[in-house]
Amino acid sequence: MRIIGYVRVSTNAQGDDGYGLAAQRDAMERWCEASGHELLTVTMDVVSGAKADLMHGRSVAIAAIENGVADVLLVRALDRATRDQLDAAELFKRAERYGWRLMDCNGADSGDPSQRLVADVRLAVAAEERRKIAERTREGLEAQRQQGRGRLIAPATQRRIQVLHTEGFGAKAIASRLTDEGVLTATGGDTWHYSTVRSALKRLGLTTKAVA
Question: Positive or negative CA dihedral for 78, 45, 92, 3?
Fold first, then answer.
């Protein structure tokens, strides 16, 4: 089969847990070689799995497949394709409607009816994991506020803000990037504001830049 791979991470900082972009691509290359399939190319996104409308790399891959370039959209694991159950259902319906297959390196295959229940369960688990992470984040930050420590930003997010600042992004641009990447705010929300990032930069001792 002719295959287009798709890799996704939530943030540029993600990559040391086996789900980094390079690790996902390597896994797909090994899978295709072992299965005797042709991996034509790989598209990518750096965005939350719950933001399907921002998965432009996935859209490009699907468009190519539906124009006859390939037969399969391959991911390392199904939650790389999406973490939203409604989006997953639409993805499976679209694959069926246009005659292509969504597959992963763990054996999931939208073209195999017996695998549909397994895929649904995996995606439901992924969605629940994301919900629990958001809930734990909110609870932890609330506990910190009650202890008088103020509205704190997670250390990993602070590092991400520092990296973006170093790359020349201003507070407004950093806020937009964090929102696009699905990074949770200090209150567990998914939308970052200029004032929040500006305050974070000041706490980190960084000069606010005017770069958009």
Answer: negative
Q: Which of 18-27, 108-117, 120-129, 177-186 has the lowest mean pLDDT?
A: 120-129
- Range of 22's domain? 2-124
**Residue 80 half-sphere exposure, CB side, CA atoms within 13 Å?**
32
Q: Does residue 150 lie within any of the structural domains?
A: no
| Residue that has been written with the tokens 């899978």 in this structure | 31
**Lowest pLDDT segment from 23-32, 111-120, 177-186:** 111-120
- Which range has the top average pLDDT, 16-20, 36-40, 103-107, 197-201? 36-40
pTM tops 0.85, yes or no: no
Q: Which residue has the tokens 């965005």?
A: 47
| Beta bridge partner(s), residue 42 | 5
CA distance 175 to 129: 25
Same domain flag for 62 and 110 = yes
Tell which residue, 61, 20, 62, has the closest CA to residue 43.
61
Mean residue pLDDT of the chain comes to: 81
pLDDT of residue 64 exceeding 90, the answer is yes
* 3-class secondary structure, 190: coil
Tally of domains in the chain = 2
Q: What is the CA radius of gyration of the chain?
A: 19
Question: What pLDDT does residue 17 have?
Answer: 47
Would residue 210 count as lying in a domain? no
**Within a domain: residue 211?**
no
Residue 188 lies in a domain: yes
Distance of CA 199 to the CA centre of its chain: 26
